[in-house]
Amino acid sequence: MPRGNSLRPGPSVRLGTCQAAISSSAPRHETAKKSMLMWHPCPDTGRLKNGQILRIDDLASTRWIKFQALQYKDPRGRVRSWDMVSRNGYLPPGPQVEADAVTIFPRLWREGEPAQTILVKQFRPPLGTATIEVPAGLIDEGETAEAAALRELQEETGYRVGTVASVSQPLALSPGLTNESTRLVVVDVDLDDPGNQDPQQKLDDEEDIEVEIVPLSGLLTRLREYQSDGYVVYDGLWCLAMGMTLGERGSPQG
Fold first, then answer.
1. Which InterPro entries does the UniProt record give (predicted)?
2. Deepest in the core among 4, 7, 116, 253, taking most CB within 10 A?
3. What secondary structure letter does DSSP report for 94?
């Protein structure tokens, strides 16, 4: 390899128990501008999966949730305590459990138009303000994630005809606080389908949801506009928009 193209080793960055070296092929005066992080993947020993829940005690309970004290053994074998919140009816993860909920990412298509998605606005009492989210809801007993996603999409947005494109494995929502899990379901919605011409929501009495149709292109910019208007954006939606923007042009401002 010609000398001018060789990588010069730079300072190392400690990442947990692994190390990454910052190197650059640029002249010294451009190193700061053109430096890159050379990743050295950590071998997965599985050590962190050795933690174990020893007992869970209910401290208080309401119709929907429980406040619990948890005793566990950490990956180093030390017995520790943790406080957590769980949904009533929660079961430990396993093949018999879909997840607590579904989070739905709708992809809306119409002939000759750019792809769009559905966002929902609603007041969230714990925050004391309105949020911008994607459609979501709890999985009913005996219901699959696919069926729950199509049902919730119709109830919250009114779109009756959709095709499930993919379903994720159970995902953590706020793992430092709760064991609640969700599955991300991507649903394709054909706006030219006759069943989607006059969408009518089917909300429960306690629900008050407004629907927003927005282009996928420029989603992060649109979310910033919602923030400027006083809305709190769901973190999963922000991560999605940030990832899309990173893929398109490189390095957005957060």
1. Nudix_hydrolase (IPR020476), NUDIX_hydrolase-like_dom_sf (IPR015797), NUDIX_hydrolase_CS (IPR020084), NUDIX_hydrolase_dom (IPR000086)
2. 116
3. S
